[in-house]
Specification:
311 residues; Muramoyl-pentapeptide Carboxypeptidase, domain 2; five-stranded mixed beta sheet; 7 strands; 45% helix; binds zinc ion
Amino acid sequence: MLSHRLPSIVLAALVVTACTQPEDITYGESSSEISVGTAVTSSCSTATVRGLSIQIAQEVECMSPTSLVKLSPTTRIKFASSAVLPYMHSRAKADLVSAANVASLSVNSGYRTVAQQYLLYRWDQLGRCGIAVAATPGNSNHESGRAVDLGNWSSRVGVMGSHHWSHSVPGDPVHFDNTRSPDNRGQDVKAFQRLWNRNHPGDKISVDGDYGPQTAARLKKSPGTGFAKGAFCKAVERGTDLLATLLLCGAVLQEAAERRHAGAGADHDDRRPGIGRRTIVAEVDDVAHRMRGARDGGASRHGSDRHAALA
Ligand SMILES: [Zn+2]
């Protein structure tokens, strides 16, 4: 009885386990919400894609926990608007805090996602919103969490320079690059691709971190407030491990009980066969494999989209 019902039981338990973890953050999605593409002409603030951007940042945290750290505004580091995301690379954050302790900073833009960079790039192309310079999506140092634009830049070049921030981009005086942080460009693109696949199992794209035509087309269609399914990562792994442990314990106990039952001289022919440890191990492994596949890009192990699962 147990053996043929196990996969659905396991899946149900995994879903419940995963859905109760704090990493599983979801946002509402409805047809009335504007898409990233629509936001190009509807406003001049990247706050229109804040929900999606927070999901992308959280997915980056899932993929690479050391890449980004939280950066909250303080009395020394002021955020100019809700378009400023509360993230930065850890070294960049340390250097920003050190500089701010000498002279307060007004941040117009820090960590950016590919969705925000897309808007800035398009506004620059269209001559909208007074954008002076914008790198192509996927290619800005802001997307590595190692750049910052300051509103009070003109009086902060010295203090920023003495805290590992270079000020050297022609035509972009507000911009500073942290010289101690790694180039992690592409991570935000990869995070978006994972989110897209998780929410569109019938329209998967390659999870390669490259901002190409396929990714650009999906980004334009994405809701600025975020997908129905947000960042999702470690919870599945932990839930899978815990469930596998519990099931194996149950199987061991069942086998032991059956051996005792047989040894006590019971009617062997009527004894119902137990599920057995090997069956459970195989089924748990299969389910875990499928869940990891879903987590790592949403692709199954079967069919032509196998390559898309390689995150
Ligand atoms: Zn900048």
